Amino acid sequence: MHNLPTPKAVIVTWTDFSREQTRKLEALHDPESINEFFIKIFEFKRNTKRTIILCDLFYYALKFARTNEFNHEQISSFLSILKRVHDLSNRTPYANMEETYQYFKALISKHSLFRPPHNLRIFTPDLAKKIMDYVIDTYFRHIKMYKYIFTPYIDFNLNFTYEGMTQKGEENTIDGPAETENTDAVQEQKSENEENPDLVEVRKLIQAYMKEELRKIENTTEEPSIKTEKQRRIKSSSSRSSKPRTPK
Predict the structure, then answer these.
(1) Is 169 exposed, middle or buried (0-12, 13-18, 19+ CB in 10 A)?
(2) Looking at the chain, which terminus has fewer C-beta neighbours within 10 angstroms, N or C?
(3) pLDDT value for 178
(4) DSSP state, residue 170
(5) pLDDT value of position 176
(6) Cβ count near 61 (within 10 Å)
């Protein structure tokens, strides 16, 4: 529903972390300085819950890389892959885990096969498997939590109006209803212009669905009354035909 194309998997070595930056990162060991380094590199907003979560994500990813003795090329590639997977997953509030996972596998493939210039063998097959297992266990297993925190909320406000019903105060005022309708129309137009196109599309789908359901309910309530009227007419006609005639 989001209609956003999946980005093409490309080689990301030295993209976010240059050789010099990776060497500086390797020299850092305390969590505070490492998190400060990530905030500067990725330009995170300071003192926000999202920044704390992202710094935690990349801190433990770096710890995983050091435990498995990644070199500078591998560290730069691994952290950049994780950043792109996170960005793709959270660019829409709709479910896209399968799309994100396929993109993640394509990125790993780009950095695990030696077919220059399209692929570079940055990771050995053993390291590639370890990276996939780590990201699946630490990120994809909690992907709904990340989407809940990093994507905008979707709120649905449904208003129902029924034919034949009057609003309170409508009978006592003359100019009030027309003025209220104009004001509501202007506000509704402004809200539609400011809303996200995806939310507008969802709102239209819900309104169409509700209209269809109301139409079915109306048809259901009308059918018994029609049948009752027909039965009454048939009964009336049968009673008249069965009435005995008086002899002349």
Answers:
(1) exposed
(2) C
(3) 46
(4) T
(5) 47
(6) 22
**Which pLDDT score is estimated for 54?**
96
Distance CA 205, CA 41 (A): 41
pLDDT band at 221 (very low <50, low <70, confident <90, very high): low
Phi and psi dihedrals of 3, rounded to 5? 55, 35
Give the amino acid at 40. Answer: K
- Helix, strand or coil for residue 167? coil
Q: How many CB atoms lie within 10 A of CB 74?
A: 20
Percent over 70 (pLDDT), the chain: 71
Token pair, residue 185, equals 């129309």
Cα separation, 54 vs 146, whole angstroms: 10
Q: Within a 13 Å sphere around the CA of 230, how many CA atoms are in the beta-carbon half?
A: 6
Rg (CA), the chain: 32
**Residue 169 in tokens:** 């105060």
The rounded Cα 61 to chain-centroid distance in angstroms is 25
Average pLDDT score, the chain: 82
Mean pLDDT of the 194-217 span: 74
In degrees, rounded to 5, the angle at the alpha carbon of residue 144 between the alpha carbons of residues 141 and 145 is 90
Residue scoring higher pLDDT (151 or 206): 151
Say how far apart CA 193 and CA 123 lie, in whole Å. Answer: 48
Instruction: Decide: helix, strand or coil at residue 17.
Output: coil
Tell me how far apart the alpha carbons of residues 96 and 81 are, in angstroms, rounded to a whole number: 17
From residue 2, alpha-carbon distances to 5, 83, 92, 102, 151 in Å are 9, 21, 7, 17, 13
Convert the pLDDT of each residue in 151-195 to its tens digit. 987 677 777 776 665 555 554 544 444 444 555 555 655 555 555
User: For 196-218, what is the mean pLDDT?
Assistant: 76
Which residue in the block uniquely carries the two structure tokens 């007419």? Answer: 233
